[in-house]
Amino acid sequence: MATQQGAPARRVTKRRAETRTRLLDAALEVFAEEGFGRSTVEQVCERAGYTRGAFYSNFASLDELFLEMWEQRSQAQLARMREIAEAVVRADEPVGTVVARLAGALPVDERWYRVSAEFTLHALRHPELRRVIAAREEAIVAAMVPPLLGVLARLGRVVPDPGALGRALVAVHDGTAAQCALEPGNPEVWRQRTDLFVHVVSAYSTKDTHQ
């Protein structure tokens, strides 16, 4: 009896998840084509094949929808970084080789870059939203640093200021994303991006003299 009573609830939950996924996918397409500031709830609903009611039963606004989109992408990247960090790392492996592998967990998607850059400008005009973005950036740094510290420890390196390293890596990612988006076919730009990640990690870490 309990199983029969619980089944409908699970179906509703699954349907709701599917609705949210379709709305998120449709929104990314609309944002990328129209620009975040020119996109409307109606356009997202039309692209997803839902009504405004379906949208507002899942998201309070396009701002909230974007933040959910960003959260999902961030969590996927962090999971990939942890997966790479947990792989076997030899103590004599060059720092550059390991960092290059970790940098692979932070791909540059030109469509996403356009949307996220526009949303950042939008947030800068709204103090409360700006605070939300800043808090989420801090949360990303806090989640990203521990696996990186673990890898560096295995390589015999320590980081005096983990927070500064995390913020520097975010700055490198955000800054080079624009360059890579502008010249997606230029291998030199991508090589320089990786080199910058390596230089930052090397600059913010030192050899562990206690080993």
UniProtKB/TrEMBL annotation:
Pfam families per record: TetR_C_6 (PF13977), TetR_N (PF00440)
Gene3D superfamilies: Tetracycline Repressor, domain 2 (1.10.357.10)
Residue stretches spanning the membrane: none
Top-level taxonomic group: Bacteria
InterPro entries: BetI_C, Homeodomain-like_sf, HTH-type_TetR-like_transc_reg, HTH_TetR, Tet_transcr_reg_TetR-rel_C_sf
Signal sequence region: none
Assigned keywords, A-Z: DNA-binding, Repressor, Transcription, Transcription regulation
The keyword 4Fe-4S appears for this protein: no
SUPFAM superfamilies: Homeodomain-like, Tetracyclin repressor-like, C-terminal domain
DNA-binding region: 40-59
Domain HTH tetR-type: 17-77
Protein name: TetR family transcriptional regulator
Organism name: Amycolatopsis melonis
